Amino acid sequence: MFSVFLTILPVFLLLGAGYLVGRTKYLPDNVADSLNVYAIKFAVPVLLFTAMYRLDLAQAFHFEMLLSFYVGAVFCFMAGILLARVIWKRRPGEAVAVGFCAVFSNTVLIGVPIAQLAFGEAIMAQVFGIIALHASLLYIMGMTTMEFARQDGRGFTDTLKAAFSSAMANPLMVGIISGLLVNFSGISLFPQLEQALEMIRASAIPVALVGIGIALNRYKISTEIPETLMVTVLALGFHPAIAFFLSYYVFGLEPIFVQAAVLLAAMPPGMNIYIFANLYQRALGLSASVLVITNIISIFTIPFWLVLIKSL
After folding, report:
1. Confidence (pLDDT) at 84
2. Element (H or E) spanning 200, and its range?
3. Which residues are within 8 A (CB) of 228 and not within 5 positions of it... i.e. 6 or more apart?
4. Once rounded to an integer, what is the mean pLDDT over residues 16-38?
5. How many angstroms separate the CA atoms of 270 and 281, rounded?
6. If 0-12 CB within 10 Å is exposed, 13-18 middle and 19+ buried, where does residue 286 land?
7. How far is CA 152 from CA 100, 113, 280, in A?
8. What is the predicted pLDDT for the residue at 233?
């Protein structure tokens, strides 16, 4: 366990470094905005473009692997909504925001570097296969459910149009789709352009992790601790457990597919959960608490899942 923890420690050191320089005011708070804008709108889309451009599509889009990950995601989403309604008596729109907190794992900014550190390039085709569908499917699911749940929601057609447009306008989706289009076309990029893209790609994850660390100083743990812990159990416990059960015991997949599905399912939620809550002004305090607590607890849960799937 300790050796596995040491393997992924650089990711949490970068997060911790960002948190420390933000906490001590060594770097001003607004630096987080600049770093995150650079990462999310430029460097990470380039990373995803290069990944999709080179992707082995047959290895990446493995149906049973994708089903294992996304069945677990949908279960956690629905369980979060149901528990928020029944136990914490949340209003429908608030319950959807709670469910979204349990489903949107940080597959790119934390999942990608941990996958590379733990398994190397061998697993990355499968990892990017899951990532290619992640934002679009989960945003469409979350936004559609929210529109039907809240009293001032839009109709079915308008809801789907809005959800699809929002997902497709995401810079990460632009990188994914453009990379897949180049992949399908068979076009080869000239070497100098590939080298330039590699330089940008190399900056994406470190910059994003430091930016996330600084931004975590903004979010406070609210009084909604029991509900936050419920979401944490769903996100860090049930999602990877379901992905493991389905991929390993039900479908009997090769270890590399099991490892990709479980590892990405075990990632903590990212800032998208707060963005979603802020978009609809629902469960903002809870989403902030989930963001902080899950990232702390994942330091201990991710090594557990890594030990399990590395033993396959």
Report:
1. 97
2. helix 191-215
3. 221, 222, 286, 289, 290, 293
4. 94
5. 18
6. buried
7. 19, 40, 11
8. 98
